[in-house]
Amino acid sequence: DARVTQTPRHKVTEMGQEVTMRCQPILGHNTVFWYRQTMMQGLELLAYFRNRAPLDDSGMPKDRFSAEMPDATLATLKIQPSEPRDSAVYFCASGLRGGVGNIQYFGAGTRLSVL
Amino acid sequence: SQQGEEDPQALSIQEGENATMNCSYKTSINNLQWYRQNSGRGLVHLILIRSNEREKHSGRLRVTLDTSKKSSSLLITASRAADTASYFCATDASGAGSYQLTFGKGTKLSVIP
């Protein structure tokens, strides 16, 4: 059963620490998205990749966030240094551009708490 | 910025009743999609309707699209407690080479057994 896998599911850290979130997209998908979800802002697109190349990271605070795709099976989102306002649920989604519509498949998310 | 805006923000109904959620958007679209999110989980795709379609059905789901009014509605018939979730509309307004969906803030549906 193909699915997007995110690790860790939960992360509690202290302000100033580095946080790395990982995502394994569905095999064969060529686009990967990172979203952040909060009660106040809803679902925000942070960055996305096509064929491992970053296409848009305009939604991401550049000074502390970075997103990479070292290979087709792994996407990472890093926050350094983390701040309390980064507390949110971070979702990875993957899709196949050129398939039916532009459907995205979401992972279960990483719930981040920065104290 | 939010493209789709769902209405109502929250909806509470009895099991067996129908639930209707609405979505309004601002720009021309290629298609509009609805997703469901159960508490503590990721979003799950439910149904896609293309800009040249007016209505689509999938099981107990019925989606309508009015491009002249830039609005869509999701109807869930004969609701069940398991339908309790947040429902999001997402618009695909992407041109060639773009891949984004823009999500609304969702409607939180509670189905009371």
Explained architecture:
The complex is a heterodimer of chains A (115) and B (113). With 115 residues, chain A is mainly beta. Chain A has strands at residues 5-7, 10-13, 19-24, 31-38, 42-50, 53-56, 65-71, 74-79, 88-95, 104-106, 110-114. With 113 residues, chain B is mainly β. In chain B, the strands form 2 sheets. In chain B, strands 2, 4, 5, 9, 10 and 11 form a 6-stranded mixed sheet that branches. The mean pLDDT of chain B is 92. The chains are: A mainly beta (115), B mainly beta (113). Chains A and B meet through strand 5, strand 9 and strand 10 of A and strand 4, strand 5, strand 9 and strand 10 of B.
Question: What is the gist of this entry?
Answer:
Chain A has 115 residues and is mainly beta. Chain A contains no helices and 11 strands. In chain B, 0% of the residues lie in helices and 54% in strands.
List keywords for this structure.
heterodimer; A: 115 residues; mainly beta; seven-stranded mixed sheet; four-stranded antiparallel sheet; 11 strands; 0% helix; B: 113 residues; six-stranded mixed sheet; five-stranded antiparallel sheet
What would the principal axes of the Cα set say about the shape of chain A? globular
- The average pLDDT of chain A is 92
Give a count of the beta strands of chain B, DSSP E runs of length 2 or more. 11
Distance between the termini of chain B: 36 Å
Report the β-strand fraction of chain A as a percent range: over 45%
Give the overall pLDDT of chain B as a whole number: 92
Oligomerization status of the protein chains: heterodimer
